[in-house]
Write a structure and sequence with these properties.
It contains 1 helix and 6 strands; from the N terminus they run αββββββ. Helices cover about 10% and strands about 55% of the residues. The protein is mainly beta. The protein has one helix at about 1-10, and strands at about 10-15, 20-30, 35-45, 55-60, 65-75, 90-95. Strands 1, 2, 3, 4, 5 and 6 form a 6-stranded antiparallel beta sheet that branches.
């Protein structure tokens, strides 16, 4: 799983989502409480439908297009990160 691997190795991910390219620091990946495979990540570059280009976001894996793990690392958990995220019914990978 590229998303879980990126979390383990602390590498940025890039993908298209809602028509915008995004670059994110992946923090938590698993199944959300509605049964969707999801990623909680901190977006560092790119666009957003909401206009918020930087910050914490939830992404559904089925809506990600062109997912790539970048060679660029990130230093670790962002301020505000909480392990054992209660939004997830099952966590497969987390920082």
């Amino acid at each position: 799983m590229p998303i879980a691997q990126a979390i383990r190795t602390q590498h940025l991910l890039t993908f298209s989502y809602d028509g915008f390219m995004r670059t994110v620091e992946p923090h938590t990946y698993g199944i959300d409480r509605k049964g969707h495979r999801a990623l909680r990540a901190y977006q560092v570059r790119g666009g957003s439908e909401s206009g918020e280009r930087v910050g914490w976001k939830i992404f559904h894996e089925r809506e990600m297009r062109g997912l790539e793990v970048l060679l660029e690392p990130f230093p670790g958990p962002r301020a505000g990160y909480k392990r054992e995220d209660q939004m997830f019914a099952r966590i497969d990978a987390q920082l």
